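Human
Can I borrow your eye for a moment on a structure tokenisation matter? Give me a protein, with the fold worked out from its sequence. Write it directly below this note and I will take it from there.

Assistant
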Amino acid sequence: MVGLAGVVERARAGLVLALGPFLAEGGHVREGSRGAVSWVADRCGVSREEAVGLVRAARLAWRHRLVAESLAAGQVRVVRVVRLARAVRGPGRWVLFGRDEPVLVTAARSVTADVDFEGVVRAWEAQVDDELDRAAPAV
């Protein structure tokens, strides 16, 4: 069972890594889809919720080399890349993720319990929110 689960995880990682360039080049549009999430849900046979996560993870891996390399090497699970991708949503977060990518990917590789990894990501989100608030012009 564990071996089979590993095969499934490698396949999901391969899907995420292949989706990045496909979406960036507009493959889903060329195939007549209105959006990336709809294309993934329809063509990959996953729920809309799972498709959202896969698209976000694919875009993160496409833009960030260390994420992609760690995913390809099997050092980081797809579920953790999906969580990191959710963390970068919002203005200014992409740039700060680029700065902090090595630390976050190291945590994704090394923190064993998902609950502990969630704590790392939430702490990063809080720190980023504080930084963005301080950088925002006073109203």
